[in-house]
Write a structure and sequence with these properties.
This protein is α+β, with helices and mostly antiparallel strands and about 475 residues long. The chain has 13 helices and 19 strands.
């Protein structure tokens, strides 16, 4: 077996085809163990940390931070026997794909692959080769270097492959981009090591706008820090909620006073799902205001009990329990419309989705068999789910298979809204904020704790009577939690 083993980007769930490299946890030359976390990626579903399948020394990082990579593309090479001495030409056959990627990289940099290059090239040395190629007026299609209008490394690689098959030189793709007056600097990835790229990303600095002070043209940590300190007047600094303790510097164009942010990852998936649902399922939304004073009193009584100490008991917990109980009387809200089969699929279980806003976009992690959990177990599951979602560590598998969803807009101080149903489901409940409001009790006007509910449902599956029945049942259970024993 070859000493040099390539690790291709795996499919981390649900047939996802690509992912963006968020952060390398290792650098070239580092020693790694099996199952050691080596890279963090972002798919269309969530951020995921990948462990190393091999032990050894990192020989080469094949993918730049911020680049989108197709599943199956090698992203790292590991020397599995670093104690055996320098690598030679016969040690580099880990896989056809890996060998091809390395050859393309070396050839594009204007140097034929050799034993010395394989064993000794660091990220900075590779960057120097790229700089030499640029100085000679050669702008090649390199790994991680794309045309400005291509949108992703994936399309750039496809374009490069097409040029090779047709016999056209590698310079053809960048030349075509130059024809539309794109500056050469925007066609070539800035020269920087992975740690420096990570620093730039954390500070919100575009490396294209950073001037390198080193003779070889490689951007250093000091260059990035200097650029951050001298951000343009329109720059704003704010906490980055996706990373504890981190701060992001957002720079706006000083002329247009605008900035552009690519639509990718979780945000792109969310947008596609919402458009699909809005234009596929005929939505109907009904509203109900509920006096939840008894629910809030029960909440306070439970929180005073010793056996509930440390349990986060929120209105969302009661709503989750109410949805699971009410779905028993109205199973249509927990169904799936199967257009292809011409069937409605009834579920004997409730996989409850909870819409969660994260720094990367809206996600809907799922509590499986939520109908089998009591109030305490639901509270614990919700606390764990929320903590994982906020940290950006929800795995794709935990966002699949939901049957009905709750979106808690009340936590943001909003009374209610008209939620969009998740694809594959038939209903979604919006839980509004709990506020003091005037309410008639026994013929007298009193101040009570009031909450507004909104239920959107797929009218192909749930008719008006069924939707109204379900919403009324949820409201009744929140208004009088003691009713739960009758369901």
């Amino acid at each position: 077996m070859s000493r040099l083993q390539a690790f291709p980007l795996p499919d981390v769930g649900e047939g996802l085809t690509e992912a963006e490299i968020l952060e390398w946890k290792v650098a070239e030359g580092d020693t790694v163990e099996v199952n050691q976390i080596i890279v963090e990626i972002e798919t269309a579903k969530a951020a995921v940390e990948l462990p190393s399948p091999h032990a050894g020394r990192v020989h080469k990082l094949l993918a730049e931070v911020g680049v989108t990579i197709e599943v199956g593309t090698p992203i790292i090479e590991i020397d599995t026997d670093p104690g055996a001495g320098p690598l030679n030409a016969g040690d580099g056959g880990a896989s056809v794909a890996a060998a091809g990627a390395e050859t393309e990289h070396d050839a594009a940099a204007g140097a034929a692959p050799s034993a010395a290059d394989s064993g000794a090239d660091s990220a900075e040395a590779a960057g120097a080769k790229i700089g030499e190629a640029m100085a000679d007026g050669r702008v090649q299609t390199l790994v991680g270097i794309i045309a400005a209008d291509s949108g992703s490394a994936r399309r750039a690689r496809r374009g490069s492959a097409a040029s090779s098959e047709s016999g056209a030189p590698a310079e053809a793709a960048p030349a075509a981009a130059s024809a539309v007056a794109t500056p050469v600097a925007e066609l070539v990835a800035p020269l920087a090591t992975p740690p420096v790229r990570k620093l730039a990303k954390d500070l919100g600095i575009d490396l294209h706008h950073v001037t390198a002070t080193r003779a070889d043209g490689v951007i250093s940590r000091g260059d990035v820090e200097s650029a951050a300190a001298g951000a343009p007047p329109g720059a704003a600094s704010y906490p980055d909620s996706s990373r504890v303790g981190a701060t992001t510097v957002v720079a706006y164009d000083p002329v247009s006073r605008e900035r552009r942010e690519p639509i990718k990852g979780v945000r792109r998936m969310m947008a596609q799902a919402m458009v699909e649902s809005a234009f596929t399922a005929p939505h109907v939304t009904e509203f109900l205001s509920v006096d939840v004073t008894p629910m809030m009193k029960l909440r306070e009584r439970l929180r005073e009990r010793r056996d509930w100490a440390g349990v986060k008991l929120s209105p969302l917990t009661f709503a989750a329990r109410a949805v699971c109980l009410a779905a028993r009387r109205t199973p249509e809200v927990n169904c799936t419309w199967d257009e292809g089969a011409g069937e409605v699929i009834f579920k004997q279980y409730v996989h409850l989705g909870i819409a969660a806003a994260t720094a990367r976009g809206l996600i809907v992690p799922v509590i499986r068999d939520a109908d089998q959990l009591d109030l305490r177990a639901l509270a614990e599951s919700l606390a764990s789910l929320t903590e994982t979602a906020r940290s950006g560590r929800t795995p794709p598998a935990d966002m699949a298979g939901g049957t009905i969803t709750i979106t808690n807009v009340g936590v943001l101080g909003v009374d209610t809204g008209t939620p969009i149903i998740n694809p594959g489901q038939s209903a979604i409940l919006a839980l509004g904020s709990v506020k003091d409001a005037p309410w008639v009790v026994g013929g007298k006007l009193k101040v009570r704790k009031v909450c507004q509910l909104a239920l959107s449902f797929d009218h192909r599956v749930v008719d008006g009577e069924k939707g109204s029945q379900f919403l009324a049942d949820v409201g009744a259970l929140l208004a009088d939690p003691a009713l739960a024993i009758t369901y």
